[in-house]
């Protein structure tokens, strides 16, 4: 019996809850029907303008506070970091450009100095070669002159020796011819006088 009474009470409570829910749905539906019947959309209802403006002000104030205290400082911090990074990158690029220009100028100066040095070395080598060649040429010319002088002296000596022997050869030849022609000897004095007269002519 007690169990049956408990089951009955539970069913009664469930029925009561169902009745309350139905009543709530009926009330909500009735309110919606009243608004629809009135033809005014709630946000456009003049009776709710005050509360709407109040909530608008509160919402705007909260949004403004959040933006000014949270979002905007973060955005400003991000922009500042980005600006600093850009400035650092520009400074680094300017430094690299300056170093590159200095390196190019130093390279060009070194190249010009190397060219000038090479030109000086070539000029010096050319002058040294010219001096050496002139010295060697002078030595050769001096040797040739010395050899010519020696040759001329030898030729003169040979010529003098030959000329000194010409008289003797002429006398002997004249004596041999006269012996063949005349058949008798001729005096040496006569032959020498005849050779001297022939040389004089």
TrEMBL record:
Residues 90-117 form a coiled coil. GO terms for molecular function: hydrolase activity; proton-transporting ATP synthase activity, rotational mechanism; proton-transporting ATPase activity, rotational mechanism. Residues 1-20 are annotated as: Disordered. It holds the Pfam family ATP-synt_B. Gene3D superfamilies: 6.10.250.1580. Residues 1-17 have a biased composition (Low complexity). Keywords: ATP synthesis, Cell membrane, CF(0), Coiled coil, Hydrogen ion transport, Hydrolase, Ion transport, Membrane, Transmembrane, Transmembrane helix, Transport. The chain crosses the membrane at residues 49-67. NCBIfam families: PRK09174.1. F-type ATPases have 2 components, F(1) - the catalytic core - and F(0) - the membrane proton channel. F(1) has five subunits: alpha(3), beta(3), gamma(1), delta(1), epsilon(1). F(0) has three main subunits: a(1), b(2) and c(10-14). The alpha and beta chains form an alternating ring which encloses part of the gamma chain. F(1) is attached to F(0) by a central stalk formed by the gamma and epsilon chains, while a peripheral stalk is formed by the delta and b chains. Component of the F(0) channel, it forms part of the peripheral stalk, linking F(1) to F(0). The b'-subunit is a diverged and duplicated form of b found in plants and photosynthetic bacteria. This is ATP synthase subunit b. The gene is atpF.
């Amino acid at each position: 019996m007690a169990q049956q009474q408990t089951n009955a009470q539970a069913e009664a409570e469930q029925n009561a809850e169902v009745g309350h829910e139905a009543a709530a749905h009926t009330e909500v539906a009735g309110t919606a029907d009243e608004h629809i019947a009135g033809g005014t959309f709630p946000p456009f209802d003049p009776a709710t303008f005050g509360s709407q403006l109040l909530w608008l002000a509160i919402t705007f104030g909260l949004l403004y506070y959040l933006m000014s205290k949270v979002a905007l400082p973060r955005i400003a911090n991000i922009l500042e970091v980005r600006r600093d990074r850009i400035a650092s990158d520009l400074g680094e690029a300017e430094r690299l450009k300056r170093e590159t220009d200095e390196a190019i100028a130093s390279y060009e100066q070194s190249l010009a100095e190397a060219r000038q040095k090479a030109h000086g070395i070539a000029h010096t080598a050319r002058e040294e070669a010219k001096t050496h060649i002139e010295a060697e040429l002078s030595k050769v010319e001096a040797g040739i002159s010395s050899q010519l002088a020696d040759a001329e002296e030898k030729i003169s000596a040979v010529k003098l020796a030959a000329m000194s022997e010409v008289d003797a050869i002429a006398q002997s030849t004249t004596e041999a011819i006269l012996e063949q022609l005349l058949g008798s000897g001729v005096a040496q004095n006569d032959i020498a006088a005849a050779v001297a007269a022939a040389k004089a002519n």
